[in-house]
Amino acid sequence: MSMKRTNQIALAWILLAGGISIFWGSSLGKPENRWVDFKAVYYGARCLLEHHNPYNVSELDDVYRAEGGESPSETFTAHQTVTLFVNLPTTFIFIAPLAMLPWGAAHVLWIIITAVSLIFAAFLMWNIGADYAPVISVGLICLILANSEVLFLTGNTAGIIVSLCVVAVWCFLNKRFELAGVLCLSVSLAIKPHDAGLVWLYFLLAGGVYRKRALQTLLITGILGLSAFLWVSHVAPYWMHDWNSNLSVISARGGLNEPGPASLIGRSPGMVFDLQAAIAVFWNDPRIYNPASYLICGALLLVGAVRTLRSRFSQQRAWLALAAVSILTMLITYHRSYDAKLLLLTVPACAMLWARGGPVAWLALLMTTAGIVSTADIPTVIFLNLTKELPISTAGLSAQIRTLLLMEPTPLILLAMGIFYLLVYVRRDPARDAQQGLEKPGKRRLRSLRHNPMDSSEGRSEG
Questions:
Q1: CA nearest 39: which of 101, 4, 82, 68?
Q2: Which residue, 36, 352, 379, 440, has most beta carbons within 10 Å?
Q3: Which residues contact 80 (CB under 8 A, 6 or more apart)?
Q4: In this structure, is residue 262 part of a structural domain?
Q5: Rounded distance between C-alpha atoms, residue 346 and residue 414, angstroms
Q6: How far apart are CA 383 and CA 410, in angstroms?
């Protein structure tokens, strides 16, 4: 089969999988509960454009209600999601043009931008993985895309931000459209640093031209951040106090973002699944689960950082590192299923390991599939429905373990997956890869390399 025909078939499957989530997700739930995350940034930006403080709940609520928003008594959770604004000020710079449009046109345009960016990012990951395992790659990508209903139900910025981060990685590692990659990563880092921050850190540590790209990204992000800070501070001088208050409310016991069992949406497809959520089953105290999560993830990241600093760069090893980074990103702090689309970065690494063969190949496929399924929307809903009648208790160790397995299995699966990819990355032998052919990409990649030569000499020598 020709490469052109293969690309067409893969694109058709990717479009089909994405279409399932787009149309199904956009029609789920009651109308007042749809696109609540986009409503938050849309009405927040409109509030700022009208010279009000979007971080002040009463001022944002006045703007929201004046434009037809639901009352708190009708939809408390959705209303709180909109009016308890916690997004970074840089969000306003990018949402302001849409906020000038009527709600109907703005939210339709937002869905289109989200869909196009996510499908484009997915196809780029197929472009890499197809040189090693085309069927495995398209299967994993379609599994991710077909389970993005919550993203299109809520309209969260993660759909675009994660996609831009993935596009930036492709641009950097393929040495193509690198300045566009810098802009993509800058926007991603400016709006959701907890999604793109560790990816940026990897390129900073990788050295050579990649460190240059990371520093360029940081410069642009700094300019965006300063501009947003000055704008918001001019309109609302006391916005930081209100922002901190909102963060405290939303993260408090029983709040929307609280990772413990008492979370307002803890047993729903939109639940938080970071490592704090697992630890909170045993010790539901942020003074315990936050430091414990940072210590575990920090130790793993330190191992990867030391290895990156001490080793010679290669594109294959970079994909392994980014696979581990994308997984640990989900664990170290607050994330939901829509943020997990960052696991697209694990597909090239899985495909490369599959091409190697042997037990590691099967383990890579098992781990990657388990991680994707555990964060996928449809399996999550099925799992929640199957376990909703089971007793949940945190009284005693055995009850806590049962609760962890029934309520928070995702952090454990992701932790195992992250440790697996980190071990493969740390123990990887570039010379052995070359002997086994993993350093020799397919014909399409060879054609790309002739125009954009990349070899391991771009990185540092062994430390």
A1: 82
A2: 352
A3: 72, 256
A4: no
A5: 12
A6: 11
The total number of structural domains in the chain stands at: 1
Q: Are 87 and 40 in contact (CB under 8 A)?
A: yes
Task: Give CA–CA dist 264/203, Å, rounded.
Answer: 37
pLDDT tens figures, 206-230: 999 999 999 999 999 999 999 999 9
Interatomic CA distance for residues 87 and 35, integer angstroms: 15
Q: How many residues does the chain have?
A: 463
**Which structural domain, as residue segments, surrounds residue 399?**
3-34+87-239+271-458
d(CA 150, CA 453): 40
* Among candidate residues 153, 415, 399, 366, the one with its CA nearest the CA of residue 268: 153
- What residue ranges of the chain have pLDDT lower than 50? 73, 431, 434-435, 437, 439-463
Checking 261-265 for CB contacts under 8 A at 24+ apart, the result is 261/392, 261/394, 261/403, 261/407, 264/77, 265/77
Token representation of residue 334? 């607050």
Of 205, 299, 257, give the one whose Cα is nearest residue 86.
257
Domain assignment of residue 80, yes or no? no
**Residue tagged 């454009």 (tokens):** 49
How far is Cα of residue 109 from the mean position of the Cα atoms in its chain?
21
pTM, full prediction: 0.87
pLDDT at 4: 73
The dihedrals phi and psi of 311, each to the nearest 5 degrees, come to -120, 160
Q: Is 63 a domain residue?
A: no
Instruction: Answer for the pair 255, 249: CB distance below 8 angstroms, yes or no.
Output: yes
At residue 462, the pLDDT reads 32
List, as one string, the DSSP characters of 393-451: --SSHHHHHHHHHHH-HHHHHHHHHHHHHHHHHHH--HHHHHHHTTTS--HHHHHHHHH
Q: Which of 339, 248, 236 is nearest to 286 (CA)?
A: 248
Residues 349 and 360: their CA atoms lie apart, in Å, by 12
- Cα separation of 381 and 396, whole Å? 27
The identity of residue 353, as a single letter, is L
pLDDT of the residue at 365: 96
